[in-house]
Amino acid sequence: MRTQPDIIIPQSVEMPRAEEHISSNGVRIHTLYSNDFEVVRFTFVFRAGSAMQHKAFTASTTVNMLSEGSLTMSAQQIADELDFYGSYFDVNIDRDYVYISFVSLSKFFERTLNVAREIILRPSFDNKELRTYCMKRQQGLAVERKKIEVQSRELFGKALFGAEHPYGMTADERLYDDISREDIVVLYRELYTADNCFVVCSGNISDEVMEGIESIVAELPRGDVKTTSFPVPQITHSIYKEVDTALQSSIRIGRLLFTRTHPDFVGMQVVATILGGYFGSRLMQNLREQHGYTYGVMAAMVNFDKEGYLAIATQVTRDHTEDVLREIYSEIELLRNELVSEEELQMAKNMMIGEILRILDGPFGIADVTIENIMCGMDNSATERSVEIINAITPENVKSLAERYLKREDLIEVVVG
């Protein structure tokens, strides 16, 4: 007879600390050494997200145009060179930051570095490539915005922050026609500077790797540290948009709260997990398993540089929109008025800590968490503290947090469909 082994959830997690090096022009390079594999990843992080742009869509256009040709290499040559040596290149952008990552086998690091230098330091921003990119993005966004879930996400941002807030504003996709090469060049020169950047490198980091990365950051021009003056969020508590052709409704409920540095952020992550953070969560059991209203529902804390919020999101058949809203608020009230059982709370803790351990299984996952901690002004001890806080949360803590932060009158409701 086979016996399933006991599930052991650690009471603490030990995170490696990144070493910090300062380049000649002040760029912080954070290193996480791991010699288990002959591979290295290096990520350049610039404070150049969409909240920093002065013209619609220029932030995302700039970062996505970086690999579309340099002063000495075409877009095809860049792609072919990376592909030939089995290297990986990726860019991402959010409201606050741009992330430019390269992964290379150690033996082909120099080749990958040469391409990275072209992408980061010498983009050509070819006008023909720019017009092609803008046309594709305009068409793609127009199609995306026909989906009710995209509409509800954008309206939820407006409800949380206001249409003029950098975190809440959206723009007509036709404004892609107004982007000029000069717009991109100006944004690149303003934001892609040494003072607006840090680097995280992980894996098999040799002296050659460090010298190579330092050679790139040393060429980044100096500039002012860029900050954005954000207006006070203008909250709208309910937005409803009728879409006659929609067969479903897209629902978002939540509220503006606080960033990850707030002492209650991790506690509210536990509350969100119990509510809708995993397959066995309360909302999933209620809306999917008991009533069959939806295929899925989620609840999570979201962290930006300047703000943070709670979001609950689902899609349901139109006929059951009011039923689902009623059940969501009912589950919230149960959390506010009744103690969660120790068993259910432990399951939520297990899910959260298990996910942390999954992310930290390897140098690249550790690098991702390190980047997030750096952006929040913390080191990797913050992740260790998060695990300790999760383990220490009691049913009374959950009830108290729900009572304080999930009052019905404070919640925002957006329905599209």
Which helices and strands occur, and which strands form pairs?
Blueprint: E1 19-22, E2 28-33, E3 39-46, H1 58-65, H2 75-84, E4 88-93, E5 98-105, H3 109-121, H4 127-144, H5 148-161, H6 181-191, E6 197-203, H7 207-217, E7 238-241, E8 248-256, H8 265-276, H9 282-290, E9 297-303, E10 308-317, H10 321-337, H11 342-359, H12 363-375, H13 381-392, H14 395-405, E11 412-416
Parallel strand pairs: 2-6, 7-11
Antiparallel strand pairs: 1-2, 3-5, 3-6, 4-5, 8-10, 8-11, 9-10
Helix pairs in contact: 1-6, 3-7, 8-14, 9-10, 10-14
Please tally the β strands and state the result: 11
Distance between the termini: 53 Å
The run of helices and strands is EEEHHEEHHHHEHEEHHEEHHHHHE
Count of DSSP H/I helices:
14
CATH class of the largest domain, please? Alpha Beta
Biggest pleated-sheet summary: 6 strands, mixed
Oligomerization state of this entry? Answer: single chain
Report what the structure shows.
By secondary structure, the chain is α+β, with helices and mostly antiparallel strands. The chain has 2 domains: 19-217, Cytochrome Bc1 Complex, Chain A, domain 1; 238-416, Metalloenzyme, LuxS/M16 peptidase-like (Cytochrome Bc1 Complex, Chain A, domain 1, 2-Layer Sandwich). The chain has 14 helices and 11 strands. A 6-stranded mixed β-sheet has the order 1-2-6-3-5-4, with helices on both faces. Helix 1 packs across helix 6 (181-191) and helix 3 (109-121) runs parallel beside helix 7. It is globular. The N and C termini lie far apart (53 Å).
